[in-house]
Write a structure and sequence with these properties.
The chain is an alpha+beta fold. The protein folds into two domains: about 200 residues, Jelly Rolls, CATH 2.60.120; about 200 residues. It is about 15% helix and about 35% strand. The strands form five sheets. Strands 3, 4, 5, 6, 7, 8, 11, 12, 13, 14, 15 and 16 form a twelve-stranded antiparallel sheet that branches. Strand 9 and strand 10 form a beta hairpin. It starts with a helix and ends with a strand. The relative contact order is 0.21.
Length: about 450
């Protein structure tokens, strides 16, 4: 057994030496770990395919009626500031709601069950709840670059806190799932208790009377601080609970839905401040200096940044009539790990359409299953890998366009993760396209 292992090692070393001598670039450690030495002897292999890659602004993302609400402000030391604001209708939970002849407001709370968070949750953050002054229209307010006017002089609620998405909450003497509870003041209570019966007959009628709310976070100004927090709107525990009474009567409770319920439209606005606070190499790439993609590449969710990857000379380098591809893998090396702004667990690749937009369709290799297509972060090698064998074969045969690929943060409508990759010519670069092929006689 020891002799066999030694023989395989000698074959491997000899083969790598030959390949290094015949290539202009050295095989990276990640690449050689992916390939079996015996396989390398029986087929052609290259990792010197020229790649052009650079960061570009992402399009606004669809945020209408998402399952999760995002609120917060974070100041990434590389990407700068990101703000997330939530806009939502508030609807009655019953038809023909009646509060009595002379109702009196006692108190109210907005409950938002935690889902997850991104960034620094140790920092204090402050939320403000304001009433909308115009209605939410599904046909208009569907994307992350939209806003709705609100009355900043008529605050309905405020809270300063440290997000605790994994800690149980306690109120009314009981233990509850992790939930943020924002006190809502009498500006809300007195207004809804004064509604006429017509406005209380249906949820849609109530939204004509009370347009809804927005939740705005104070902007984070300290580098490396702040977070974007996601709240679960799919649960029945996402609501405004109001306590009131009529003279001579006991206290009553009424719930207003702020959720995924029918008629309760909601959407997100995301602002990256034009990446004005980002580091120079990132700002300059976004301004059009694509050559800086040789150093570092950047991607961020919430409609922020995506990476364009091109193989400009691939078709000129390989003749599909004289070869058959056995395996093609794209390897991307992570350049920045952070305990606060964590690396995405996986990435997505999509083809670029004729107009430069990201195709909504999957790449052909993804149809083989996510386990094969991959894109999952490997902590051991600090990298991502995609199998692109069928896609590159189609590219060589002219069956798909050669407009390139977009590398994007998945679920960008509610995923605030960011990524820094080694560029195409960095000294630590693991950004390579590995091809194994069989030559045809």
């Amino acid at each position: 057994m020891k002799r066999l292992v030694s023989l395989r090692q000698l074959v491997f070393i000899a083969l790598v030496s030959i390949l290094i001598a015949s290539c202009t670039k050295e095989i990276t450690p990640i690449g050689t770990k992916l390939l079996d030495p015996i396989d390398l002897l029986s087929m052609g292999y290259t990792d010197t395919v020229q790649i052009k890659a650079y960061s570009i602004p992402d399009d606004s993302v669809f945020t209408l009626n998402l399952t999760y609400a995002q609120v917060g402000s974070m100041y990434d030391p590389i990407f700068g500031r990101t703000n997330a604001t939530f806009y939502s209708k508030v609807i009655t939970s019953l038809t023909s709601t009646r509060f009595g002849i002379d109702p009196v407001f006692d108190s109210a709370y907005l409950y938002l069950p935690y889902k997850t968070s991104y960034g620094d949750t140790i920092s204090n953050t402050t939320y403000h709840v304001y009433p909308l002054t115009e209605g939410i229209l599904d046909s208009v307010h569907s994307y992350s670059n939209k806003t709705v006017a609100y009355d900043v002089n008529n605050q309905l609620g405020e809270i300063t806190f440290q997000p605790t998405p994994h800690d149980s909450s306690y109120y009314n003497g009981t233990k509850n799932r992790p939930t943020l509870r924002i006190p809502i003041n009498s500006n809300f209570g007195n207004y809804v208790l004064a509604a006429d019966t017509t406005s209380l007959n249906t949820p849609s009628a109530f939204t004509e009377y009370f347009k809804g709310i927005c939740i705005v976070a104070d902007q984070q100004n300290a580098t490396g601080k702040g977070s974007i927090v996601s709240y679960d709107l799919s649960t029945v525990y996402s609501y405004i609970k109001m306590y009131y009474h009529n003279p001579g009567d006991t206290v009553k409770v009424y719930n207003f839905n702020v959720s995924t319920s029918a008629d309760c439209s909601h959407f997100q606005n995301y602002s990256h401040n034009g990446y004005a606070e980002a580091i120079p190499v990132l700002k300059q790439q976004l301004a059009g200096n694509t050559s800086l993609g040789q150093q570092f590449l950047f991607a961020q969710g919430l409609g922020g940044i995506k990476i364009k990857i091109e193989f400009p000379y691939l078709k000129q380098s390989f003749d599909p009539k004289k070869m058959v591809l056995n395996d093609v893998q794209l390897i991307l090396g992570n350049a920045s790990t952070s305990d606060v702004f964590k690396t995405p667990t996986y990435l997505l690749l999509r083809a670029v359409g004729e107009n430069g937009t990201t195709s909504p369709n999957t790449i052909v290799d993804e149809n083989e299953g996510t386990g094969y297509f991959d894109g999952t972060y490997d902590k051991g090698s600090n990298s991502y890998r995609f199998h692109l064998t069928r896609y590159v074969q189609q590219l060589l045969l002219g069956q798909v366009n050669n407009n390139g690929l977009h590398l994007i943060i998945p679920s960008s409508g509610y995923n605030g993760a960011r990524l820094v990759l080694n560029g195409t010519a960095s000294e630590q670069s693991d950004l390579k396209l590995f091809l194994r092929y069989t030559k045809l006689n």
